[in-house]
Amino acid sequence: MSNELRIAVLGVGMMGADHVARIQSRIAGARVTVINDYVIERAEELAATIDGCRVVIDPIDAIADPEVDAVLLATPGPTHEKQLLACLEHAKPVLCEKPLTTDAATSLEVVKAEAALGKTLIQVGFMRRFDAEYVELKGLIDSGDLGRPLVGHCVHRNPSVPSHFDSAMVVKDSLVHEVDVTRFLLDEEITSVQIIKPLPSSKAPEGLQDPQIAVFSTESGRHVDTEVFVTTGVAYEVRTEVVAELGSAIIGLDVGLVRKSKPGTWGGAITPSFKERFGQAYDVQIQRWVDAVVRGAESGNYVDGPGAWDGYAAAAVCEAGVSSLETGERVQVAMVDRSSI
Ligand code: ISE
Asked: What is the torsional sign of CA 183, 184, 185, 187?
């Protein structure tokens, strides 16, 4: 490995391009040496702005490239399985934006392939685990000061989503974060999911079930509900409240600076999207991943954060969620026992 970690970024749409900018400007000890995207001009345009960076047209060649020490996957979900297996085959540590893969069966294949290697190479981009407010909430829960958590209430609102977003994507692309937050905060698996379908917003595209209410139950019998509403037209709002035996705690109130001024107004700025709300979390996530990859050669653990198992668990819960969306029934989550891997 050269002095700086040489990263290939695969997929430079909104998130991938954001990560390239982050690595080049705010992350220590790493640089982008290879860019790949199915829109070749987009890849070339971005690569031209970075010294020593080139485009590799085939994603598998980009992974195998000798000038690549680690891979950041921000490609569309359906391509992840093949690309993750290639990372494992070439022993390249990889940070994979969610989803790990698009269904539980292929996610499990990835989990097994990594386990067979005897090295931990896959980290999944559930960035909320690196957000200061989530970290503080987790610390409070783990301290025991709130007592035993019983219930969670979450809100996940986006001002808008791309036009290809359908009702299942509300579950797999948006609600998936609450799936991970629930597992992260409560340290247990989700065992069943029910999706309730309120009156859809007249502002949502025809056929999109928006908002949705999801109710998770966990192994120990706790309940976490989430309102997901992805076409509010207002702001990016993510709140999580945990209600426990000795009190409750809430994050995401998004109050920041509140101003009072003439002519008789008060208030602050709204958060437009997840890039602003979780910008720092993405920075911390990528820096800690880079540091873990650099340390990994000694320990065989190239990950500092959620791994392939967390991606598999999220895929299994979302699969149950999509099935509940269709039937309206509570659906059990089908997952293998971790000890069987
Ligand atoms: C998007 O893909 C994300 O991952 C955001 O964090 C989430 O809030 C949004 O709803 C998704 O569409």
From this structure: positive
One-letter identity of residue 139 = G
Provide φ and ψ at 78, rounded to 5°: -60, -20
Nearest alpha carbon to residue 180 among 138, 141, 213, 144:
138
- The sign of the CA dihedral 304, 310, 315, 321 is negative
Residue 167 CA, ligand 1 centroid: distance in Å: 14
Give the pTM.
0.96
Pick the atom of ligand 1 nearest to 165's CA.
Answer: 12
Question: Which residues fall within 8 angstroms of residue 164, CB to CB, at 6 or more apart?
Answer: none
User: Nearest C-alpha to atom 3 of ligand 1 is from which residue?
Assistant: 174
Distance CA 126, CA 281 (A): 10
Strand partners of residue 277: none
239-291 pLDDT, tens digit per residue, is 999 999 999 999 999 888 999 998 888 998 999 999 999 999 999 999 999 99
- Spatial separation of the C-alpha atoms in residues 295 and 285, rounded to whole Å: 15
- Ligand 1 atom, smallest distance to 278 CA: 6
Ligand 1 pocket mutation, candidates 100, 171, 174, 275, criterion most atoms within 8 A of CB: 174
Q: Which atom of ligand 1 is nearest to the CA of 174?
A: 10
Map residue 42 onto helix, strand or coil: helix
